[in-house]
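Mods, move this if it's the wrong board.
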Amino acid sequence: MATKTAERREELRGALIDAAERTIAAGGLEALRARELAEEVGCAVGAIYNVFPNLDALIFEVNARTLRAFEAFLSEANKTPARSEENSAVAELVHLALVYLEFAVEHRPRWRALFEHRMAAGSKMPEWYLGEQARLFALVEGPLRRLRPDLDGDPPMLFARTMFSGVHGIVSLGLDAKLMALPVAILQKEVSEFVRVLGRGLLAAPAMPE
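Not the wrong board. Structure tokens:
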């Protein structure tokens, strides 16, 4: 009996994540409401909170799927990487930034949900979700470490966050219709040049003392 109860609970959990993902993909984070979600899945509103402590926990599950979807999107894009004559690590960073822009354009509501989610005051982001984020930052840290092998410890991680913040800012503002959205072709040029400038600056900077 306990096994069947656990199975039903797991089935409901999966159905709720699937439904929430569809809702966010269609209408953004603001479209997610417990009552409508329960109606779609065919359960009572209270049943949602028997599976998840709150909607924040459900949103983290959906956002984690989005992060994994970006990884898959990047993996597919890497099958045919753009050829470049510049430093391979810089070229890889530019490629990552352009793929990020492409994902944001093609999956805008889900992408925005990653950054629009606001937790209740005093709440903390789950450790497992921080791990999902860290895995993506590691994609940027890799070419940065090749670019500057003399940088040990935290600097590559900090540079990765700085570079991501800059790229995300360009993409976010550039796609915001309220701030006069820019054509994707212009955003591609802006993102590429921004990353190249940072990459070349790191190359030109003096090596860190041992």
